[in-house]
UniProtKB/TrEMBL annotation:
Keywords: Cell inner membrane, Cell membrane, Ion channel, Ion transport, Membrane, Transmembrane, Transmembrane helix, Transport
KW Signal (keyword) present: no
Topology class, membrane: Multi-pass membrane protein
Main function: Mechanosensitive channel that participates in the regulation of osmotic pressure changes within the cell, opening in response to stretch forces in the membrane lipid bilayer, without the need for other proteins. Contributes to normal resistance to hypoosmotic shock. Forms an ion channel of 1.0 nanosiemens conductance with a slight preference for anions.
Entry similarity comment: Belongs to the MscS (TC 1.A.23) family.
Compartment annotation: Cell inner membrane; Cell membrane
Chief location category: membrane
Residue span, Cyclic nucleotide-binding domain: 240-359
Subunit note: Homoheptamer.
Protein name (Swiss-Prot/TrEMBL): Small-conductance mechanosensitive channel
Superkingdom in the source lineage: Bacteria
């Protein structure tokens, strides 16, 4: 039973006990006392009407239970905190800033109450993103959704989504919607989502729309990235090709193929043969491996990530399946595009083998930590340089 109701019940029982003692033990008349006390109560009730209203509002709140101790609630607009105490007159909240707020029960009962902790499965929040109307809606949704999916602060279930919120003179405003399990993590989750969205937009060669009132000329904006330019930019940030010259990066970029992958479609499948590497340009992908009769989620990938380097450099079968979590865009670099560069500069083979071994050991350590049953082989178990030279006939 709530504390407020037990206090009221205790006061009522004590009052009846006092009257009973006066009437039956001491033999005193209580009729006049009751009549006199009625006048006193009327005077006090008029003087303390606001406090009495708060008390009865507290009784109603305790009976209905719109919130409990520990819930995160918004009792009045702009007044949000964790319920720390519900007493006779007021509800005491502790805000995210660590300050205490005392809200009269009458004020709380007379306003709309928003409870972020019930029914207990979390609540949905959103981050608005405005992009130029020239950006296709499907591409904008793909980039923003992949950013939410790749954000570690957002739970995978319920699944996040992206909707068009409004169309204005400044552009199209999208609402990136995701679920938050605990209100105390709302600000941190929004920050993580917004940061990831900005990173994914930047990798895609986009930026948030600028207010048209600024009268910025379109010539002052950075030109939109072409498919070739975006592919070259992705290649230039891959540590595997750090030793390649700019003109060699350009040559590799011109030999890459652009692929659009629908959500749920496999880019590569485990144990299939292949001779190409993939760079993620847009979207989110899941790395899954089948081990011991079970399929395990090994990793998530987003824009800028690379996979398939072992198949490109040694012809090794795919060690895991890569499935598109959202609609995605990837660049495929095949052996035929890399072969002329290595033949002109055979010394790059040793550098590639060293970097590939380092990447493989790092990836294996990460996968063992997330899925011990996978137990992948490390690059140290093979002479990568010899395999690379044999594969490219160097």
């Amino acid at each position: 039973m709530p504390r407020l109701l037990t206090d009221l019940l205790r006061a009522l029982l004590y009052g009846l006990a006092v009257l009973g003692i006066l009437a039956f033990v001491l033999g005193q008349p209580v009729t006049g006392l009751v009549a006199t006390s009625g006048v006193v109560i009327a005077v006090l009730g008029f003087a303390l009407r606001n406090m009495i209203a708060d008390i009865f509002s507290g009784i109603a709140l305790n009976v209905e239970h719109p919130y409990r101790i520990g819930d995160w609630v918004e009792l009045t607009p702009g007044v949000t905190g964790r319920v720390d105490e519900i007493n006779w007159r007021a509800t005491r909240l502790v805000t995210l800033d660590g300050t205490a707020l005392v809200v009269p029960n009458g004020l709380a009962a007379g306003n709309r109450i928003t409870n972020y902790s019930q029914p207990g499965s979390g609540f949905r929040a959103g981050v608005p993103v405005t992009l130029d109307a020239e950006v296709p809606v499907a591409r904008a949704k793909r980039i923003i959704l992949s950013a939410i999916v790749c954000c570690d602060a957002v739970p995978t279930e319920p699944r996040p989504d992206v909707v068009v919120e409004s169309i204005t003179l400044n552009g199209v405003t999208y609402q990136a919607r995701f679920w938050v399990a605990d209100y105390s993590r709302l600000a941190a989750t929004r920050d993580a989502v917004a940061t990831t969205i900005l990173d994914h937009l930047s990798r895609a060669g986009l930026e948030p729309a600028s207010p048209k009132q600024e009268m910025r000329r379109r010539s002052n904006r950075p030109p939109p990235c072409s498919a070739l330019g975006l592919g070259r930019d992705l290649l230039s940030h891959v540590d595997l090709f750090a030793a390649f010259r700019p003109e060699e990066i350009d040559e590799l970029a011109s030999g890459m193929h652009l692929r659009h992958v629908a959500a749920g479609e496999a880019v590569v499948r485990q144990d299939e043969t292949g001779t190409s590497l993939f760079l993620v340009a847009e979207g989110a992908l899941d790395v899954r491996g089948a081990f011991g009769g079970r399929t395990l989620l090994l990793d998530h990938m987003g824009p800028g990530d690379v996979f398939g380097e072992m198949s490109l450099l040694t012809g090794q079968p795919r060690s895991a399946s890569v499935i598109a979590n959202t609609d995605a865009v990837v660049y495929e670099l095949d052996k035929e595009a890399l072969d002329p560069v290595l033949r002109r500069r055979p010394e790059l083979a040793a550098r590639l083998a060293d970097l590939m071994g380092l990447r493989q050991r790092r990836n294996d350590a990460h996968r063992r930590a997330s899925a011990p049953a996978a137990a992948p082989q490390t690059a140290a178990e093979h002479d990568l340089l010899a395999r690379l030279k044999t594969f490219f006939s160097l």
